[in-house]
Amino acid sequence: MDTSIKKVLHFPIIKIILGISICFLLFIGVQNFISKPFFYSIIQNKGIADPFIHCISLLVLLFGYYFLFRFYDKREISELSLKYIGKEMFGGFALGFLTISLSIVILYFLGYYKYLGITTDHYSFRLFGLLMVAALIEDLFVRGIIVRVCENWLGTNPTLIIGALFELDHLFNPNVSAFSVFFILIWGFTTSMLFIYTKRIWLPFFFHLGWNFAQPFYGSNLTGLNNMGSIIQSKWDGPELLTGGAVGIEESIFTGIFLLLIGVILYVFAKKEGKIIKKKW
After folding, report:
1. Side-chain-side CA neighbours of residue 86 (13 Å)
2. Cα–Cα dist 231/115, whole Å
3. Nearest-CA neighbor of 199 among 251, 239, 264, 152?
4. Which neighbouring-strand residues pair with 234?
5. Cβ(144)–Cβ(79) under 8 Å?
6. Is 76 exposed, middle or buried (0-12, 13-18, 19+ CB in 10 A)?
7. CB 102 within 8 A of CB 109
8. Three-class SS of residue 222?
9. Which pLDDT tens digit goes with each residue over 114-159?
10. What dihedral do alpha carbons 100, 172, 133, 226 form, nearest 10°?
11. Where are the domains of the chain?
């Protein structure tokens, strides 16, 4: 390959654009032209068919990413290494779930959250499958591609700003407010640190799943969406700053503090362990 073409293809911004575009087009193509037509033709109930489609979509995203960057970078794809998958899967999910749970406990004792009952009749596992795919797309593209490439190019500190800014697309979600900007930036910072500390996609991905599962589990809206169902039937009554209002518990000041604390602690650990990359300009 011509040296000038190779330099262009491996320029970080071009690599980010190509990486996201190819993986996303592969995902859309397989889902719309293969998995959906196939499963909808053999399973009439979409509630049963969709979880299979979501599983195929997850595999397409992961394998597409793996083989693309194996060819592109000529390297081992360490960010998808399964060496610590057990710890990062259970630890990440538990940490995400616990972060939301701590806010719920505080609101309960303040009298702003009331437990009414528990049932799975109002929760759709089909929707959870959709959340899994959405979480993987976000974590694979933002953390796996944008944060990884930018950190190697610019260093860790500028990358944390970039990783946080790329989460601002959540401002297009329903019911967001001016305060949502701060919570979204904290989310981007902390999830970027989850990746930077481990250099693998699994901890931020499973943290994301635990975070997303916990909110409808407790009867909260999820990122402004009120149609995600619930497992615990509850009543919310209190200041929006504390409860998160229509956005959901993830925009509670308590949740924001806990989330920021996780990111800061990880940054301190990463700095002590020499995982913060500094670039000389």
Report:
1. 1
2. 11
3. 152
4. 115
5. yes
6. exposed
7. no
8. strand
9. 999 998 777 777 778 888 999 999 999 999 999 999 999 999 999 9
10. 50
11. 1-75, 83-272
